[in-house]
Write a structure and sequence with these properties.
The structure holds two protein chains of two kinds. By secondary structure, chain A is an all-beta fold. Chain A has no helices and eleven strands. The N and C termini of chain A lie far apart (38 Å). Chain B is mainly beta. Chain B contains no helices and eleven strands. In chain B, the strands form two sheets. In chain B, strands 2, 4, 5, 6, 9, 10 and 11 form a seven-stranded mixed beta sheet that branches. A four-stranded antiparallel beta sheet of chain B has the order 1-3-8-7, with no helix packed on it. The chains are: A mainly beta, B mainly beta. At the A-B interface, strand 4, strand 5, strand 9 and strand 10 of A face strand 5 and strand 10 of B.
Amino acid sequence: DQQVKQNSPSLSVQEGRISILNCDYTNSMFDYFLWYKKYPAEGPTFLISISSIKDKNEDGRFTVFLNKSAKHLSLHIVPSQPGDSAVYFCASLTTSGTYKYIFGTGTRLKVLA
Amino acid sequence: KAGVTQTPRYLIKTRGQQVTLSCSPISGHRSVSWYQQTPGQGLQFLFEYFSETQRNKGNFPGRFSGRQFSNSRSEMNVSTLELGDSALYLCASSSTVVSADTQYFGPGTRLTVL
């Protein structure tokens, strides 16, 4: 049972345009969400996070939006750069009870120069 | 600060063998989690250790086990290897357990089972 879903396995975007990566979750108890970026042969690196009490968090070119009623979050990258080409994972966390991250299956972003 | 280190980086084993992977967390981090990454499955949570105690466990068979030492270093063991165990095994460390602290990942160990 995949509680965190990234339905688009891949995405291609032109350099300078906006990249939008989507993530859906099923458990309303999740109260913290994170995005990680992974390059080949490296471990995932933390990108940006958002608490369930917020609906937006911004860090430079990266913005995460959370829609709790739809159980949906998205990562916007503006403007996209070739160095952003990587696999992006969204993850959820419940901070009460079991302290466990649940990751999505990842979306491979390719930014075309 | 040194990052999370994992050894070995690559490993080739045959079916039926067992394997031990090692993870050294960032200095001061007491929580270590292990994940299995396979194509199409994302990162599947194996288990998490904090202060030498397993606090959380994912849905993996008992062939997968782990432990954490007093210096927070952790090992993961897989016994009776199967072809399907071929994957990238990642460990991640974090400093606290109360807040939603960021996990920092190591580069992973690529295990190939022949």
